[in-house]
Amino acid sequence: MAPQAPLSPAVAMNLALAVVASSNAPLLLLDRSLTVIAASGSFCRAFQIEVDNVADRPLASLGKGEWDVPQLTGLLNATASGFAEVKDYEMELVREGRANRALVLNAMKLDYADDGNVRLILTVADVTDARIAERLKNDLLRDKEVLLQELHHRVANSLQIIASVLLQSARKVQSEETRNHLFDAHQRVMSVASLQRQLAASQLGDVELRPYLTALCESIGASMIRDRNQLSLEVNADDGITTADTSVSLGLIVTELVINALKHAFPQDRIGKILVAYQGHAPNWTLSVTDDGVGMPTGSDTAKPGLGTSIVQALAKQLGATITVAAANPGTKVSIMYAHVPVLVSQSAALGGAV
Predict the structure, then answer these.
(1) In contact, 21 and 40? CB cutoff 8 Å
(2) In sequence order, what are the beta bridge partners of 208?
(3) 269 φψ region: left (φ > 0), alpha (ψ -120 to 50), beta (else)
(4) C-beta separation of 353 from 260 below 8 A
(5) In the chain, count of helices (H) and strands (E)?
(6) 322 Cβ partners below 8 Å, 6+ apart?
């Protein structure tokens, strides 16, 4: 197939004029000296310029001279010379007695056979309203962030007050069973308060898990481990990042499993260690809590699943993760695993110990 012959200058000009005349977008057709050959009606309407007062006028003289912008003139001259193209050039149109407008301009040199008659097409997009809407959205997001941070602080403070009341009540009651229930309630309220403090200290978007879990375990250890020489609580996590919602679930799981280990793995002042570990290879991850205590009860000593077990199971299900419990020799290891491609994991082992 023979190559198509280039359009004659006259035909090319007629096509350019037709494009400008029919355009719903603000367009200008300029010559080499940046004089307006034609303007679309939408350009004239957008910038309040009389249609009959546009052609054959220099771009810099349009309106009241607001288009006389040295940088724009330089870019258009470079485009006319073939050295550059104007791509997404942003400028502020300053007009006397009218609000300033934020514009995005693009210009290109038309490919004519006649190099002596240079023509430029200049398109203008008014993005003022879009920028205002974006700023309003960002302001609203910042206000929301401040309000949510304040909410986290207030909830954490309220939970601490409730925990203090529960602890005082536990010390006053005579019934050992009631006292234990109140102590359990106190521990759970404190764990939720700790999570709230961590969220208040972090961003509302993605959460870095290493500092998050470290701070959480430090808080749990400070409230529940009397002698750090007897029991230690450590964190080994990679640089994983997750959403705030997922971090809350992971934090609650860690809290319940650590409380379980503290209550059941180290009887009679046994010395030991609890390790909280997290490893992730997006989108898969594994969270585990391992102790070197007495291990899982067997036979007639096996305890019925308690509230903590139910909480962990519910949270794991919500995350789409699986739970495995295994002997750590010594001690017990509980793993919560999420795999994007489902992995069949034996569910025969149940969480040991009543929480």
Answers:
(1) yes
(2) 241
(3) left
(4) yes
(5) 8, 12
(6) 316, 336, 337, 338, 339, 343, 345, 347
Q: Give the tens place of pLDDT for each residue, 312-349.
A: 899 899 999 999 999 988 999 999 999 876 545 544 44
pTM value > 0.70:
no
Backbone angles phi, psi at 49, to 5 degrees: -120, 135
Q: What is the distance of C-alpha 184 from the center of its chain?
A: 35
Which of 81, 80, 44 has the alpha carbon at shortest distance from 63?
A: 44
Burial 294-333 (b: 16+ CB within 10 A, else e): bbbeeeeeeeebbebbebbbebbeebebbbbbeebeebbb
Amino acid found at 102? A
Q: Which of 79, 39, 84 is nearest to 59 (CA)?
A: 39
Q: Which helix (H) or strand (E) holds 259?
A: helix 244-264
Q: Residue 64 in contact with residue 93, Cβ under 8 Å? A: no
CA distances from 183 to 30, 157, 166, 221, 308 (A): 82, 19, 7, 16, 14
Write the pLDDT tens digit of every residue in 73-98.
999 999 888 887 889 899 999 888 88
| Residue 56 CB neighbours (<10 A) | 10
Q: What is the 8-class DSSP label of residue 179? A: H
Nearest of 20, 23, 24, 12 to residue 37 by alpha carbon: 20
